[in-house]
Amino acid sequence: MSKTKPWIVLLCISGLLFFVFGLAQLLVARFERGGGFPEYSTLRTDPLGSKAFYEALQSLPHLTVTRNLQPWYRLSPSPSKTVFWLGEESLQLALLPPEVLDKLEAFIHEGNRLVITFSPREQPDADYLYNFYKALEEEDEDEKSLGERWGFSMRHTSLQIVGTEEEETIYEPLTALGAEGYTEWNEMEWYSGLFFIDLETVWTPILSVTTGPVLIERSWGKGSIVMATDSYFLSNEGVWDDPQSELLVWLVGLHSHIVFDEVHLGITERAGVMSLALKYRLHGVIVVLFLLAGLMLWRNAIAFMPAYDDSRMSQFHPQSGRDSMTGFISLLKRAIRSNDLTFECWKAWSHSASLRKGISEEKYQQIESLVQQEQQKSPKERQPLKTYQAIQHILNYRHH
To answer: Average model confidence (pLDDT) for the chain?
Structure first.
């Protein structure tokens, strides 16, 4: 039988455990930085995330701040809340089905505030977005598009390129100023070429650039809708470099319940073993399970008792022609001396009620006396065979 050296097995187990530990640390580090989440997600901690804004609101004692990882239509309209949709794609928003828009508008109508900020991503053509919205309006006369229902349209202007950094194009930001009634707000950099056009009178422009409004608001029933063409000012980098406190407070509004939607970014919560383990901080349990698995592998790979030598085992062979009774008799011969055979048989017989069944008391006394006389003799004088024959004569004797 081949033998595995214990140190080799231990080395393999140690290497496996270190590999699992290193992989876990790598994944944890990546998710702590937020690299695995989309841009403007509140779960992302690098410059492209918005966790700083989320945690800043969460630190305020009078606010209840949560993330939404379930379909938004499951949100209860009461109590009234402010819902943030950060980093939304303008084309994706325009493609929302009518039945979804109906539920969304009903949710806002109950007194909730919806804040939508678009991703400042460059469009392929300056007129592409405008033509896209117009095409949706003309596609189905029976169903109104988002722009028709809400009373706005969008256009895009290209930003000036100022250079590149790490293969990423850098654009010259626009300058956004407060519109009428908000002129006291500080001017701020605007990193998106999107702007609103064809606004109905229900919309109030809040911030504008040279091409048109970029931040607008309107009432909808008891609630309100806010849309901004840029999300940079809510990112971790934007909050750090150029914090716009007045603007952020205005976006939150008067509601004390704040919800950051993650579903529109493709982040949903799926109940599984690992998600529950992470939710209830069962990291230690996972580590212990890995250790137990390693110990089981070690136990099965290493024999704590010396292994049998096959060459020695080959010396023992079963004997043919011998049954179990023969083996039992051989065992009795080795354990009981021949001179004690009569007495040992007597003890076994006297203690067995089934064997004594049908024997009279007189015969029993005679046999007992005979055995006692034989046992009192010296081992050399004992004659087990004659004593057995005498006992047999007593048992077979019948009175006539």
So the answer is: 80
Question: 147-156, 246-255, 263-272 — which is least confidently predicted?
Answer: 263-272
Mean pLDDT along residues 279-285: 68
**Burial zone of 239 (CB within 10 Å; 0-12 exposed, 13-18 middle, 19+ buried):** buried
- Cα 37 to chain centroid distance, Å, stands at 17
Whole-angstrom distance, CA of residue 238 vs CA of residue 47: 8
> Model confidence at 287, in pLDDT bands (50, 70, 90)?
confident
CA dist 230 and 310 (Å) reads 79
Fold held by 38-266: Rossmann fold (3.40.50)
Q: Is 257 helix (H, G, I), strand (E, B) or coil?
A: strand
At residue 351, the pLDDT reads: 76
Q: Which tokens belong to 140?
A: 């189905």
The encoded tokens of residue 307 equal 């292994």
Q: Distance between CA atoms of 245 and 188, rounded to whole angstroms?
A: 12
Strand 81-88, strand 113-118: pairing: parallel
Q: What is the dihedral of CA 155, 214, 84, 188, to 10 degrees?
A: 140
Q: How many residues does the chain have?
A: 400
- Cα–Cα distance between 157 and 176 in angstroms, integer? 14
pLDDT bin (cut points 50, 70, 90) of residue 1 is very low
Q: Structural domain boundaries of the chain?
A: 38-266, 325-396
Q: In the chain, which ranges are continuous DSSP H helix?
A: 6-33, 51-58, 90-94, 98-109, 128-139, 146-150, 236-241, 245-252, 273-279, 283-301, 310-313, 324-335, 341-350, 353-356, 361-376, 384-396
Weakest-pLDDT range from 117-126, 199-208, 370-379, 385-394: 117-126
CA atoms within 13 A on the CB side of 114: 26
Element (H, E) at 175: strand 174-178
More confident residue, 208 or 360: 208
Distance CA 155, CA 197 (A): 7
Whether pTM > 0.70 for this model: the answer is no
Which residues make Cβ contacts (< 8 Å) with residue 40, sequence separation at least 6? 48, 49, 50, 86, 87, 117, 119, 231, 234, 235, 265
